[in-house]
Amino acid sequence: MRLAWEAHYGTCPKPNNYDFVDLVAEKAAEAAGATWADAVALLKDRLVGEPFVAENEVASMQGLLGAKLTDKVAGTDAAVRLRRVCGALVATPQFLL
């Protein structure tokens, strides 16, 4: 059961044409000075109720994003990168509770 759930939801597929991940990516790319840490914090707040990136999560988040958390959000693939983070977050105990 768990593997089927992860296969379906672990990539954070869009439920429709535009969702919260798209909104975060769009607004973060538009905002002057918005970093990947800001975007990830928004996503974490929405999904697991933690509006911050913990020190022990930095390396993992940077690996998923392919960018430093201190970098400005940019690129047409911002939503794709955030979906990788989303996929990791929806597999956490905090999300499942």
Plain-language structure description:
The protein is mainly α and 97 residues long. The protein has helices spanning 2-9, 20-30, 36-48, 58-65, 78-89, 93-96. It starts with a helix and ends with a helix. The relative contact order is 0.19. The mean pLDDT is 89.
What is this structure, in a nutshell?
58% of the residues lie in helices and 0% in strands. With 97 residues, it is mainly alpha-helical.
- Overall mean pLDDT stands at 89
β content, as a range? under 5%
Number of strands: 0
Radius of gyration: 13 Å
Shape: globular
Summed up, the helix count is 6
Task: Sketch the topology as an H/E string, one letter per element.
Answer: HHHHHH
- Percent of residues in helices: 55-70%
What is the subunit arrangement here? single chain
Query: How can the largest sheet be summarized?
Result: none
Question: What gap, in angstroms, lies between the N and C termini?
Answer: 17 Å
Weakly predicted, low-confidence segments: none
Structural class comes to mainly alpha
Question: Which characteristics define this entry?
Answer:
mainly alpha; 97 residues; 6 helices
